[in-house]
Each structure stands twice: as C-alpha cells, then as structure tokens.
Write a structure and sequence with these properties.
The chain is mainly α and 327 residues long. The chain contains 17 helices and no strands. The longest helix is centred in the first third of the chain and has 18 residues, at 12-29.
C-alpha cells in the first residue's frame, strides 16, 4: 500500500524500489498470493508510466497467471487485465486493448464490484472514442462520472472530465471543453493526483492552441511538462514535445518546431510504441509540407494512415488522411 501511495503522488522511483523488494521476498516465500499479485499490478502500472510497456505487460500477465485457479481473488485478476489493456492501448494495439478491457469488465461484473465497474466503463468509453463511436463513449463517460462525483472519487473524476472535454473539443464545443478541463485540473489537485493534473493541463494547452491563444498554451504546456518530468511520465513528455512542436509550426517558428520534433522522435524511438511513432509521423508530414517537401510528407502521412486505419484509430486516421491529401 505504501508503494502504491508513493507512485500515486509521483515518487515513482521510491515506490518501484519498495515494490521490487516486496515482490522478490514474496516470490521466494510463496506465502501471500494476494499481496504478491497486487504488488505485481502496481509495478506494472509504474512500468507503464515509465514507458517500459513490455515489463508492464509481463508483470500484469504474471498476476493473471498466478490467479488462474484462485476464484476468490478474481477481482484482483480483473484489475490486472485492466492494467494490461491500458498498456496495449499505449502500444497502439487498440483492438487487443478493447478485448482485454471488456474481459476485465465481465469479470468485475460477475463479482458485482461497484467500485471498479465505473473504471472499466471509463476505459472502454475511451476506446470507443478512439474508434469514433462518440455517442457510445459519451454515454459511458456520463455513467461513470455520476458514480464518481457522488462518491467523491476526485482522481478518477478528473481523468474522466479530461476525456469528456477532449470529446467536446472535437465536436467544437470549446466552452464546455474548457470548463471540463479546468474542473479536471481542480479535481486532480484536490486528490493530489499529479498524473491526472499533467494530462488535463496538456489537454487545456491543446484547446488554447486550437483557439490561437499561443501564449496561454505555452504556459500550461510548461506546467504539464514540470509534472511529467517529476513523474518521469515518458508518454506525456513525448506528447508535450509533439504538441509544442505543432504550436511552433503553426506560429511560424520552424527551427524551434524542428528541435521539438527531434526531441519527440528520440522519445518515440525509446518507447518502441507504434502508436507513438505514428503520431510523430503525422506531424512530420505536416512539418514537411511547410518546407515544400511533398514526397517526404506523403511518405510519412501514408505510413501513419495505414497504421491508424489498421488499428481502428478513427481520429488519428482522419488527421493522417488530411495530411496525405495536402501532400
């Protein structure tokens, strides 16, 4: 529990050290399967924050395997599936992620676990958003939000409000999106959840950027970056480099945009995530267009489109297709 608290408040390294010690001792003694599997799940989550997706999947799968014949701990097995599904998403394997999360939901429902069912509604709602099923996504978001707000679970409500804001921004409802991003940041601070705060700040920055409020965008991006560095959140650090690179390209500072994209490229390569790499390829296409490098733009856009289309990422597919059409 102490390790989970440390990870939750951003002390990832200290939390991981404690988990390593606990897991080693429990693997040797084989005395407490419940604590062992919970520790593996927590370490899987920490590995995911650090961008080590293979180690994250290995730990979550180990927990799943250990609980295969222990039905009384099935709710822990379902949580391991939930963490594993989220890791698949960050690697870009959207369909596998959705299948894994649905399996987790079915298991939680079989135990009538009213605390964790809303988490899965939220996770699966997000997958539906990525697949372009916006009505279904919003419905699942609202169901989960009602539960968390009534129960005072501000950390989860923060993440959900952020995703609801992203959906509203996509629809052009900027006022509602801004309200939800600001509420998400407030909830994250109340619950002392820096990861949720960093995510919501980056979303608010994207909204400001889309509204051409560049100075405000840079300000909140910098706040998010400070949190991401503290957490060593590899995906968020990548995303912020990419987002600021887009902003600098739009505002006309191409040398700074190129520098930020090169920084994002390094982080994408380290992650070995196809999703991350192809997010970069889409923006690389747009950057090449500004320098009249049409063949390079076409190659990047086509590569990104083929990947996103095959994995079912509707929003990213559309953006890559737009880049390809311009090239």
């Amino acid at each position: 529990l102490q390790a989970a608290i440390l990870i939750g408040i951003g002390d990832i390294t200290e939390g991981m050290d404690l988990l390593d010690q606990v897991i080693t001792e429990l693997l040797e003694s084989q005395s407490d399967k419940e604590t062992l599997t919970l520790s593996l799940i927590r370490r899987a989550f920490a590995y995911r924050i650090q961008g080590d997706y293979e180690k994250s999947k290995k730990d979550s799968q180990s927990a799943i395997d250990l609980l295969k014949d222990t039905p009384e701990l099935g709710h822990i097995r379902a949580e391991a599936m939930r963490i594993r599904g989220g890791t698949y998403y960050l690697q870009g394997e959207l369909r596998v992620a959705l299948t894994t999360l649905k399996e987790s939901l079915r298991l939680f429902e079989s135990y009538h676990d009213q605390q964790n069912i809303p988490k899965l509604l939220f996770n699966i709602g997000f997958m539906n958003f990525q697949l372009g099923n916006y009505v279904r996504a919003e419905s699942m978001y609202q169901d989960a939000l009602e539960y968390w707000q009534s129960g005072g679970n501000f950390a989860w409500a923060s993440e959900l409000l952020n995703n609801l804001g992203v959906l509203q921004q996509l629809r052009g409802d900027y006022k509602a999106a801004a309200k939800n991003f600001e509420k998400a940041i407030e909830y994250a601070r109340i619950s002392n959840s820096p990861q949720a705060e960093g995510l919501s700040l980056s979303s608010l920055g994207d909204l400001y950027r889309d509204l051409d409020a560049f100075r405000e965008a840079v300000d909140v991006y910098k706040q998010a970056q400070s949190i991401a560095k503290q957490l060593d959140d590899r995906f968020l650090l990548f995303y912020l480099d990419l987002a600021e690179g887009v902003l600098e390209r739009i505002s006309g500072d191409l040398p700074k945009s190129r520098f930020l994209l090169e920084s994002a490229e390094k982080k994408a390569s380290e992650s070995e995530s196809a999703y991350t790499i192809n997010l970069l390829e889409t923006e690389r296409a747009m950057y090449n267009l500004t320098e009249n490098k049409y063949q390079g733009a076409a190659n990047s856009a086509t590569s990104a489109y083929d990947y996103f289309q095959s994995e079912g990422h509707e929003n990213e597919s559309l953006r890559a297709a737009f880049s390809s059409a311009l090239a």
